[in-house]
Amino acid sequence: MKPEEIVIERARSYGPPGDFWPACEAIWLIMDAMKGPRLVPGVHTNLKMIVMKALRLCYTPDHKDSLDDIVGYKICIEECLRKMNDKAK
Fold first, then answer.
1. Cα atoms found within 13 Å of the Cα of residue 56, Cβ hemisphere only
2. CB neighbours (10 Å) of residue 70?
3. CA angle at residue 23 from 21 to 25, to 5 degrees?
4. For a 10 Å CB count at each end of the chain, is N or C smaller?
5. With contact defined as beta carbons under 8 Å apart, do 35 and 44 qualify?
6. Angle 3-14/17-33 helices, nearest 10 degrees?
7. Where residue 20 falls among pLDDT bands split at 50, 70, 90?
8. Which are the contacts of 69, defined by CB distance < 8 A and separation ≥ 6?
9. Overall domain count for the chain
10. Torsion angle, CA of 23/28/30/35, rounded to 10 degrees?
11. Model confidence over 40-57: pLDDT tens digits?
12. Which residues contact 4 (CB under 8 A, 6 or more apart)?
């Protein structure tokens, strides 16, 4: 599949990129401003991805792949926290 076809297909699934990305960027900027001193490496990025998938679900709430991805990012966060705790021991 050509890149242009992929973009068209994604727009059918998730809505026009022009509608989605500005909202995602706005929320990510707020999240960046809220980084705290206890932020664990990798956690913030995974949280951003969870937010991105949640925004996509606002457009297509029945899109199971986005729900599965959120679970995957949750597991990644747990792994980041586990690594941090192992280093602290």
1. 21
2. 19
3. 65
4. C
5. yes
6. 80
7. confident
8. 49, 53
9. 1
10. 170
11. 879 999 999 999 999 989
12. none
The structure's pTM equals 0.83
Range of the domain at 51: 3-88
- Listed in sequence order, the residues at least 6 apart from 46 whose beta carbon sits closer than 8 Å to its beta carbon are 73, 74, 76, 77, 80
Whether residue 56 contacts residue 14, with contact meaning beta carbons closer than 8 Å, is answered with: yes
Place of tokens 């951003």: 48
SS (H, E, C) 27-81: HHHHHHHCCCCCCCCCHHHHHHHHHHHHHHHHHCCCCHHHHHHHHHHHHHHHHHH
* Structure tokens that stand for 63 in this block: 């899109």
